[in-house]
Amino acid sequence: MIGLRVLAPVALAISFGIAFGLSTGSFRSSISVASSPLVCRPSAPTLAEAHHYGASILMFGNSQIYDGNWNLGLTLPINCARQGLTARAAINLVPTLPVIDPDAILLGFGAVEVLQAGSAVNPATFEYELTTLVEAMAARWPKARILVATVPPMRRQLLPTTRGSAATTATALSEAARAVAAAQTGTRLIDLSNILPVDADGLMEAMTHDGVHLTPAAYALWSAKIADEVAAALR
């Protein structure tokens, strides 16, 4: 069994500036350090029992990662995601992430960018930002397998009419994520368009609450793929 290498507790506060909530309703207001510190889960007491696990994965992204029901078997998920986090903002947070030695890293970004800017979001800009983030994570954890997720499919029927272009834009940012994963050595793609079931209206209704956020059924499918990728990284 591979031992989990945890060198310090993971609850910590950081400077974040302006953040927007990932919501199909309205953007959340700016978040301050005092009112909303970044907290990685599990807490230090749970990490003290890390010998029960065979591997670990650091999870970094927006609320689609933060809210996840992650059941990864013998892999311990260390969830450092936060609501409203974009790839651009995440770059500056890499030095503040916990002092651990994960076997793998999951990056899940793009949905907030879509809901903030809609069709105005530039896929090339997102690709550059995600590339920069991957390079920063790889520089800090050169031995970890980095997993880049595409933007989960959205269900058009459940999106507000003001965000009718979101599903199409999400597809464009997923193409950018595929390009990043293909270009970065040691990086693997988690292609959610091949994992989460879709129909003519996009993501199947059983997979989402509101067209964007995912249900436990969706997380179960995503978790299974992550567990397989971590197992492959340890072979």
Query: In percent terms, what proportion of residues is strand?
Result: 5-15%
Which CATH class is shown? Alpha Beta
Helix content percent band: 25-40%
> Going across the major beta sheet, what is the strand order?
3-2-5-6-7
The helix/strand series, from N terminus to C terminus, equals EHEHEHEEHHEHEEEH
Largest sheet composition: 5 strands, parallel
Q: Please tally the helical runs, counting DSSP H or I stretches of 4 or more residues.
A: 7
Shape: globular
**First-residue to last-residue Cα separation:** 11 Å
The name of the CATH topology is: Rossmann fold
Which value, in Å, is the CA radius of gyration? 17 Å
Mean pLDDT: 81
Low-confidence sequence ranges: 1-36
Q: Please report the total strand number as a whole number.
A: 9
Instruction: Provide the domain count.
Output: 1
Instruction: Tell me the name of the CATH homologous superfamily.
Output: SGNH hydrolase
Jot down its keywords.
235 residues, alpha/beta, Rossmann fold, five-stranded parallel sheet, two-stranded antiparallel ribbon, 7 helices, 31% helix, globular, disordered N terminus
Which helices and strands, and how do they pair?
Elements: E1 5-6, H1 44-47, E2 55-61, H2 63-66, E3 75-79, H3 87-91, E4 100-101, E5 104-108, H4 111-117, H5 123-140, E6 145-149, H6 166-183, E7 187-190, E8 198-199, E9 202-203, H7 216-233
